[in-house]
């Protein structure tokens, strides 16, 4: 593996186990502030320890602002209760709706935040190799990896096309209307280039014996160490204890 820090060095499956435990605990726990008081500070501390605080904060902030506003408005406006928390013009936010929104946002923080930090600190190729070593079919692992890479690839390709359009004199900077008009000419080359890349990728995969049956040897194979087993075991044990206390104690 590459020389990385903290979380990036850990075995992908161990990190995924921890992320899923955090996400499931955030969904099942009765404490409504769990996502705000426990999960969010913990995720920021881990991101800072790995040197990914800035990128993680930007993505988390952008996601939370949109989801929080949407959830708060929907829950607050359309709740069946009559107790009004505050009102402005025709907008009336219900007290119980606001509480439900805060509870739901806390769960979103636990789920989305844990998974976001996992993918932020995990090399996708290492993750794919780990899944294959656990028994997942190679084709399924590759499809999973390709799906995760679709959005970043499209964003990168659209930026390249926008730069090419700007070099040709097309105005791409300005107000929302100007940017919308500039984005329309980008759609066609983006779709065509994506379709062309599929064909190129198929040829490349076949040239590298993608469909050949038999044992595969990877250039880089991540291996789980004692720390990885310990982290996975601790999180699983903590989750089992939480479930026992939650449903049986």
What are the secondary-structure elements, in order, as H or E?
HHHEEHHHHH
Number of strands: 2
Strand content: under 5%
Number of helices: 8
Specify the biggest β-sheet: 2 strands, antiparallel
Describe the structure.
The protein is mainly α and 249 residues long. Helix content is 72%, strand content 4%. It has helices at 12-28, 34-49, 53-78, 95-120, 124-133, 138-167, 176-207, 226-247; strands at 84-88, 91-94. Strands 1-2 form a two-stranded antiparallel sheet. Strand 1 (84-88) and strand 2 (91-94) form a beta hairpin. The protein starts with 11 loop residues before the first helix and ends with a helix. The model has no long low-confidence stretch (mean pLDDT 80).
Q: Main traits of this protein?
A:
mainly alpha, 8 helices, 4% strand
List the helices and strands and how they pair.
Layout: H1 12-28, H2 34-49, H3 53-78, E1 84-88, E2 91-94, H4 95-120, H5 124-133, H6 138-167, H7 176-207, H8 226-247
Helix pairs in contact: 1-4, 1-8, 2-3, 2-4, 3-4, 5-6, 6-7
Quick recap of the structure?
It is built from 8 helices and 2 strands, in the order αααββααααα. It has helices at residues 12-28, 34-49, 53-78, 95-120, 124-133, 138-167, 176-207, 226-247; strands spanning 84-88, 91-94.
């Amino acid at each position: 593996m590459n020389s990385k820090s903290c979380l990036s060095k850990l075995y992908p499956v161990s990190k995924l186990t921890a992320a899923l435990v955090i996400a499931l605990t955030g969904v099942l726990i009765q404490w409504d502030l769990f996502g705000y008081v426990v999960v969010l500070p913990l995720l920021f501390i881990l991101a800072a320890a790995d040197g990914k605080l800035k990128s993680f904060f930007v993505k988390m902030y952008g996601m939370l602002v949109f989801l929080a506003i949407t959830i708060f408005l929907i829950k607050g406006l359309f709740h069946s209760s009559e107790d009004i928390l505050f009102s402005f013009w025709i907008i009336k936010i219900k007290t119980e709706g606001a509480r439900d929104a805060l509870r739901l946002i806390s769960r979103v923080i636990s789920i989305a935040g844990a998974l976001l930090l996992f993918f932020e600190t995990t090399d996708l190729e290492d993750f794919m190799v780990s899944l294959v070593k656990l028994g997942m079919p190679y084709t399924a692992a590759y499809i999973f990896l390709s799906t995760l890479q679709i959005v970043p690839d499209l964003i990168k390709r659209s930026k390249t096309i926008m730069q090419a359009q700007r070099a040709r004199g097309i105005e791409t900077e300005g107000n929302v209307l100007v940017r919308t008009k500039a984005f329309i000419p980008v759609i066609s080359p983006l779709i065509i280039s994506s379709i062309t890349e599929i064909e190129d990728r198929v040829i490349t995969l076949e040239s590298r014996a993608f469909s050949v049956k038999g044992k595969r040897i990877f250039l880089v194979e991540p291996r789980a160490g004692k720390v990885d087993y310990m982290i996975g075991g601790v999180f699983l044990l903590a989750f089992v204890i939480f479930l026992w206390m939650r449903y049986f104690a």
